[in-house]
Amino acid sequence: MLDENEIAQGRAELIHWGEPELNPLDALMWRTERPPADSWTGVVVIVLSETPTWERIKSAHRWGIKLAPRFAERVVEPLVPTGPPMWTTDENFDLDYHLRRVRLPGEGTMAELLEYAQGLAVTPLDRSRPPWSAVFVEGLEGGRAAYLLQAHHVLMDGAAATQLFSRILDREPDQEHSGAPTEADRPQVSRRDATGRGLRWQAEAVGGLLRGGAKVLSQAAADPVGTLKGAGAYLSSVPRVATPPPPAASELLVPGPRTKWRFGSLECDLTDLKKAAKSVDGTVNDAFVSAILGGLRIYHDRHGATLGDVPISMPVSMRRDDDPMGGNRFTGAFFSAPSGIADPAERIQAMHERVLAVRQEPALDIMNKVTPLMNLAPSPLVAAAISGLNAGATLTTSSWQGVPFRTYWAGVPFERMFVFGPLPGTSMCAALCTHEGVCCIGVNVDGDVFSDTEVLWECLQAGLDEVLALGR
Q1: 316-368 pLDDT per residue, tens
Q2: H helices present in 125-176, as ranges
Q3: Which of 67, 254, 310, 364 has a 20 to 30 Å separation from 53 between CA atoms?
Q4: Beta bridge partners of 431
Q5: Which residue(s) pair with 306 in the sheet?
Q6: What are 313's strand-pairing partners?
Q7: Mind listing the pLDDT tens digit for each residue in 22-47?
Q8: Is residue 446 a contact partner of residue 273, using CB atoms and an 8 Å limit?
Q9: 171 close to 407: Cβ distance less than 8 angstroms
């Protein structure tokens, strides 16, 4: 039985989905974006098991934007880099600009849908408008439809997306949208306003630094030995965290221009992936990443090439229960992934050990500590630095728990959700989002590095199959 009060309360919370200003990580992604090679924009591919009417789609958007007004807001940068950009209501917001409909010309296969989506992904968003666009796609085989959401990363990370979709989606096919959502108190913000807020932000940052210094001195006075040990552990951790791992030695993984994005998808039952991971004392994320690494290894075998360990970048969530909804709360971890290990069980175990070692690094959050200072530097310099750091990794992976219960949108069942992340320096990005007990894996690759993507998709499926076999 649905708890209507709980649903209503969750939807009411969306009025606060998103902070008034971009947090330091969001600001860094906004300012360093140079699409498509250094893009921070991804595409969410949602498969609907039936085809709703166009009017139901538009009505669902009008209702959803009232619930989550962030999607009718644009980013305003200060006149000079005094602080982070801010959000302001777009007085000229036009839903018809952001939302359109198409019909697939072919047989409506998943491959055709992803081919259309990858073309959408490399089309730059208009930065003077709310940073998203959407396409309702009709004509999928089996009477199905799809919804493609192209969104800048400043809107949300994986956890924030789950916060949004778990609240905004319906729990019944004809759930009533009764009552008007609470009106948001979101003032207009000019570039001058953002500049003034940035100056105040700097003053607050200095005050916080002084208070933090005083706290450290107080702790040092109370426990000088413990403070010195903690400081020593942190300082010794910094080089391990900040130094990129060795580059991939494979001749097949020479970095490309990252201007041709190619999308592929995999899926499996979440229970099966859990069984496989548990059989060798790993986590779902360990098994997922090991499956991708195994697929890369099989791909190299098909080409008569050797694959050793590859450098990987992996976001580690720093989100706390009391953090505001929306935006991004993660730090990046860079390390060598065990793709050189042929046995899938041993690979998962090695992956588990390496991830655990990275998570235990005292300086894991070093990027979040220096990000506020980086945001005060000229954007071209920061963009070059970030691109250089990300270019040290071949693969980016990310996984998170999606919506676990049955949902509907525009009156029809919400069947699958695949997320295709950008390629900010890497040649492949693989993202796993669970949806109603299914692991939906979206893979984006540089088409100049992987020119034979049909072979790559087959190899990645084989890598997933060999991992799943461990649980049988």
Answers
A1: 888 888 888 898 888 888 999 999 999 999 999 999 999 999 999 998 888 77
A2: 158-168
A3: 67
A4: 398, 442
A5: none
A6: 334, 396
A7: 988 888 889 888 899 889 999 999 99
A8: no
A9: yes
> Which residue do the tokens 């968003």 mark?
125
Distance CA 318, CA 365 (A): 9
Mean pLDDT over residues 66-87, rounded? 91
Enumerate residues 6+ apart whose C-beta is below 8 A from 194: 21, 76, 77, 78, 79, 83, 85, 86
Instruction: Classify residue 96 as left (phi > 0), alpha (psi -120 to 50) or beta.
Output: alpha
Is pLDDT at 100 greater than 50 in this prediction? Answer: yes
* Bridge partners, residue 21, by sequence: 86
How far apart are alpha carbons 283 and 348 in whole angstroms?
8
One-letter amino acid for residue 429 of the chain: C
Type of residue found at 29: M
pLDDT of residue 194: 87
Nearest residue to 94 (alpha-carbon basis) of 75, 76, 74, 72? 72
Residues 6+ apart with CB under 8 A from 3: none
CB 216 within 8 A of CB 227: yes
The SS3 call for residue 410 is coil
What is the distance between the alpha carbons of residues 433 and 134, in angstroms, rounded to a whole number?
A: 20
Global pTM reads 0.91
Per DSSP (E only), the strands in 107-260 are 132-140, 144-152
Which ranges of 21-152 would DSSP assign to H, the alpha helix? 24-32, 54-67, 95-98, 110-121
What span, in angstroms and rounded, lies between the C-alpha atoms of 281 and 298?
24
Amino acid at 34: R
Of 31, 83, 26, the residue nearest 202 (C-alpha) = 83
* Separation between Cα atoms, residue 193 and residue 100, nearest integer Å: 33
Q: Which amino acid is at 278?
A: K
> Which two tokens mark 113?
């849908």
Helices (H), 303-399: 344-359, 366-374, 379-390
pLDDT value, residue 216: 47
**Tens digit of each residue's pLDDT (9 = 90 or more) over 436-449:** 999 999 999 999 99
